[in-house]
Amino acid sequence: MKEMKIMGYVVPDYISFILFISFILFISSCDEEFTSPIPSAPVSLTVDLDFADSDLVPALATKSITQQRVATDRLGFGGILIINGYSSNGGTTLFAYDLACPVEVNRSTLVVPDDVGKAKCAKCGAVYNIAYGSGIPESGSKHPLRSYLVRQITGGNKYIITN
Asked: In sequence order, which residues have a C-beta less than 8 Å from that of residue 48 and are 6 or more positions away?
């Protein structure tokens, strides 16, 4: 059996071959960053859980925003879907997605949220899990919903949604 030295250790030839193949598989499995089929569009929206958006306080509450509420609002490609979903620590937190279906890629073909943490496209039937912040498809699509960043504004129950 042939052997070689790697970093001062004697390694049998078949181990070197396995390491080489593993390295090649690792490199080839690295994919480019996910590119959504939904075109990038400006997003800037303020959410106030104490006043205008208090309906988002209960767990799994959703709101679909397709019209500017103030002149500075930017609503992405198809509008913004907001859900008070579940965080990794078991509490609730806001998540935001573009309303446009990534299968249809049309500003007027929007997903519709339900009351159990899912959203469905009425046109193609694709269903997405929105409750945990991923927007991953459960059926009918290979692309997740385009998600947006939600940050709490210091001091209060206000959040800003951006991309």
From this structure: 156, 157, 158
**157 vs 9, which has greater pLDDT?**
157
Beta strand residue intervals within 2-125, DSSP E: 3-6, 9-12, 43-48, 62-65, 74-75, 80-86, 92-98, 111-113, 118-121
**Quick one: 111 exposed, middle or buried, by C-beta within 10 A (0-12, 13-18, 19+)?**
buried
- Where in the sequence is the domain holding 18, given as residue range(s)? 1-30
Residue 71 falls in which region: left (phi positive, over 0), alpha (psi -120 to 50) or beta: alpha
pLDDT single digits (tens) 92-145: 999 999 999 999 999 999 999 999 999 999 999 999 999 999 999 999 999 999
Residue holding tokens 């499995």?
A: 29
Same domain, 89 and 137: yes
- Which 8-state DSSP code applies to residue 142? S
Is the pLDDT at 19 greater than 60, yes or no? no
Q: How many CA atoms lie less than 13 Å away from 158 in the CB half-sphere?
A: 8
